[in-house]
Automatic annotation (TrEMBL):
Keyword DNA-binding belongs to the record: yes
DNA-binding region: 28-47
One Pfam short name: TetR_N
UniProt source species: Nocardia acididurans
Protein's UniProt name: TetR family transcriptional regulator
Key word Ribosomal protein present: no
Source organism, top-level taxon: Bacteria
Signal peptide: none
Length: 190
């Protein structure tokens, strides 16, 4: 029996294929719909906007890769180096593949550009990560995780990252810097 691919999946696949060969700003909603063989309004019906489509694509393709980094991770400063290693491993793997680099660049565009999108999975929710830092109040923990992810995503989403990825020394420095920022003692809270 032939499995029917949903319109949503066809739109995601079409967007992914177009974004691999064309700059983000040159890929229109109309082109995505045409490539998917869908009604011209399908992107708006299923996602609401081009940014939401790209957000769904990123979450759909990347979320499962990081699910293990959060799931079952013990809370507390001592667990943070292992959690960061679990976060960085998929980034390193993705950076060595053209499709993976596309996903990382799209993630960087959405996160660093502060594009509004509705994230569904726990990996994309700051409260889930903040719970891993019980020594801090939730607001401070969220702020630290946001800075950590901004830095990681900015580095891996950079156009400078090619099939060779990030050098071992740079990766180690990034890891150590992020861990230090997350586990640093709490200062005075405003």
């Amino acid at each position: 029996m032939v499995e029917k691919v949903s319109t949503r999946e066809r739109l995601l696949a079409a967007a992914e294929e177009l974004l691999l060969s064309e700059p983000y700003d040159d890929v229109s909603v109309r082109a995505v719909c045409a490539a998917a063989g869908a009604n011209p309004a399908a992107v708006h019906y299923h996602f609401g906007s081009k940014e939401a489509l790209v957000g769904a694509l990123v979450e759909d393709r990347l979320g499962p890769r990081w699910a293990g980094g959060l799931k079952g991770a013990p809370a507390g400063r001592d667990s943070i180096p292992g959690v960061i290693d679990a976060i960085l491993a998929p980034f390193t793997e993705l950076a060595s593949d053209p499709l993976g680099r596309l996903h990382l660049r799209l993630l960087a565009r959405l996160v660093i550009g502060r594009h509004r999108t509705v994230w569904q999975g726990p990996w994309f929710q700051m409260d889930a990560w903040a719970a891993l830092l019980p020594e801090l109040d939730a607001r401070a923990a969220r702020r630290r995780w946001m800075l950590a992810f901004d830095l990681i995503i900015m580095r891996f989403g950079s156009p400078e990252i090619d099939e060779n990825g990030m050098g071992a020394r740079s990766l180690e420095t990034l890891r150590d810097f992020v861990v230090a920022g997350l586990i640093a003692p709490a200062g005075e809270q405003p």
